[in-house]
Write a structure and sequence with these properties.
The protein is 30% helix and 36% strand. The chain is α+β, with helices and mostly antiparallel strands.
């Protein structure tokens, strides 16, 4: 089930960050997501546990995905697709026309997920992640 996350979910989102991201957000960074009225944070819940989340910030008619994380034990079950699908609905509702994201060029599973969901590569930032490039992707609403 996908729904809007609340401040009550911060600890679980932090757990997802720590367990699944190479450069996880700190608790303070996660808390700040909920303090910004331009940010949407969605969660995926399975068996009464948060197993995935996505956050995005919208400025005018452009949104930028901050992070997408799915618990390793729940990958390849459509959770990422469901999160991105509902995120598109939410962002369309606030007037977004485009969604942007950055993904490490070596993160092939994430790139495949984004491509499957209609994102297209538009540029590359060399060395953005230190020893890896960032692929900039865009989705047109």
């Amino acid at each position: 089930m996908i729904s809007l996350a609340t401040t009550n979910d911060i600890a679980e989102i932090c757990r997802l960050e720590q367990e699944n991201m190479p450069h996880p957000y700190s608790q303070k960074m996660v808390e700040e997501l909920f303090c910004n009225e331009r940010v949407k944070v969605l969660k995926a819940v399975k068996n009464n546990r948060i197993v995935g989340y996505v956050s995005a910030e919208t400025v005018f008619d452009e949104s930028s995905i901050n992070n997408v994380a799915v618990d390793g034990a729940f990958r390849r079950q459509g959770i990422g697709d469901a999160l991105l699908g509902e995120l598109k609905v939410q962002l369309r509702g606030v007037g977004a026309q485009k969604i942007f994201l950055e993904v490490a060029s070596r993160n092939l599973p994430a790139i495949r997920l984004y491509e499957k969901n209609g994102f297209k590569q538009i540029s590359v930032r060399k060395g953005y992640y230190g020893d890896d490039d960032a692929i900039i992707m865009q989705y047109d609403m």
